[in-house]
Amino acid sequence: MVHETLKKIGYRNLIDNDLLTQNPFIEQGIYINRSLRQILDSLQITYNLDTIQEQYYREFWQRRKKEHNDSVVSVIVKEINESFQKTITPTFNIDLVNDTLFTLVFTEFRNDTLNSIVATDNFIRLKRLGFHQSAYNLLYGTTRYENIKWNKDSLKQTLTISKHFIYPWYVDNTGP
Length: 176
Fold this sequence. Notes:
The protein has about 180 residues and is mainly alpha-helical.
């Protein structure tokens, strides 16, 4: 479901070409001495090998085989690789696309210029989906939105305080 949703958005719209080719890169504090492209290529190549010399790929595929999801992961890796080799967005199974996830990812990775119209549209979209904390964070706690000219107090009044905590899609990133 996640993969089909991301295919609909397009991996090219989600992963910057610099990140794909940067070698080495650091992800979540982990130093990786290969580009993401090299990792994906190597995962695809090593899937059907009887013996895999490199520990990372060997253990990666052993874990997937133990979980009985290796064939699905292999297809996903192959399709991600293909999406960067072709200029068209790959076909996706609309029945497996999650509309909420699509909307959230689309909102986060929109390519248009952030202005008050786009920001308000994002606020309304989050509120409609029930992500009131995320909508609040757009107003008060997200640096990307800090220069938007909108009536924060008026918009804040339209939000509902949840009795059940739902981890926000947009987190407050203005703190220390």
